[in-house]
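From the methods appendix. Each design record in this collection lists the tokenized structure first, followed by the designed amino acid sequence. Records were kept in a plain field format so they could be parsed without special tools. The example shown here is representative of the layout used throughout.

RECORD:
FOLD TOKENS (275 positions):
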């Protein structure tokens, strides 16, 4: 019998993880199409955290596992403007005049995505909104009217000092939002996205001086929003100074999935192939 090499094990792991992701996707589609997943059971959440806390790492994993949409409001706004939708044209007019897009426009953009984006059938991750209590209240009002109230508000918490080293080494895949780090989470191939092979970039505002200003603004705005969701009983804080895998397990714990493992996962764990 030929010996099992490290390359064979790595290849088997890769195939297993791809198959596992596909199973999650198909289960999510079946639930949505067959009505097995009620609105009360679907995943509806806000992901909060300062720049560099790991939202760009964890949001895609949540999206993939639960087959839900990821609504990054900055990307969504740019897409609406590019498509020249009525909301996009209205937003562009305001931005061209140097103004801030109103809360009503942003909430209506989110509402539009929930109604028209098929990926949102099982739920959503909202990233970048709300930033104020008034926005949170307006969002809640819309979601309740749509019978899609929030279930979770997860905050990735990390000391500001740790963020400087994280941010200054961050690499981003613009099309998907996937993030890497030159030291802590490097891509398999230098400056290329693991999934598509497309080039990664380093954002011009990912520097220490800009970060300190952004953090000051973030804390000033976010503290009241965190308090708001605490009173709603849906807030959870996650220690984002941990490595990404431990952060992921902590998030699964919030969802009640910390012990959720399929029989195949348990078997693969015993032979050292599970994640």
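DESIGN:
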């Amino acid at each position: 019998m030929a010996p099992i090499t490290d390359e064979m094990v790595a290849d088997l792991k890769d195939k297993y993880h791809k198959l596992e992701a596909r199973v999650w996707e198909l289960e999510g589609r079946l639930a949505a199409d067959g009505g097995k997943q009620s609105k009360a059971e679907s995943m509806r959440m806000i992901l909060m955290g300062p720049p560099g806390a790991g939202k760009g790492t964890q949001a895609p994993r949540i999206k993939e596992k639960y087959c839900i949409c990821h609504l990054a409001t900055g990307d969504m706004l740019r897409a609406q403007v590019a498509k020249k939708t009525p909301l996009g044209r209205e937003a562009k007019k305001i931005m061209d005049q140097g103004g801030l897009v109103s809360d009503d426009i942003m909430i209506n953009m989110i509402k539009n995505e929930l109604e028209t984006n098929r990926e949102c059938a099982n739920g959503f991750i909202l990233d970048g909104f709300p930033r104020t209590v008034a926005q949170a209240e307006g969002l809640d009002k819309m979601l309740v009217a749509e019978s899609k109230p929030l279930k979770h508000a997860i905050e990735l918490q990390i000391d500001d000092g740790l963020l400087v080293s994280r941010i200054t080494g961050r690499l981003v895949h613009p099309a998907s939002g996937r993030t890497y780090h030159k030291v802590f989470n490097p891509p398999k191939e230098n400056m290329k996205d693991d999934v598509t092979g497309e080039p990664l970039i380093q954002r011009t505002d990912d520097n220490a001086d800009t970060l300190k200003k952004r953090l000051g603004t973030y804390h000033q705005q976010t503290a009241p929003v965190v308090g708001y969701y605490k009173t709603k009983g849906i807030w959870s804080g996650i220690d984002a100074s941990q490595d990404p895998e431990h952060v992921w397990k902590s998030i699964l714990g919030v969802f009640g999935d910390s012990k959720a493992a399929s029989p195949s996962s348990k078997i693969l764990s015993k032979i050292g192939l599970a994640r």
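APPENDIX NOTE: Confidence is low (pLDDT under 50) at residues 34-40, 260-275.
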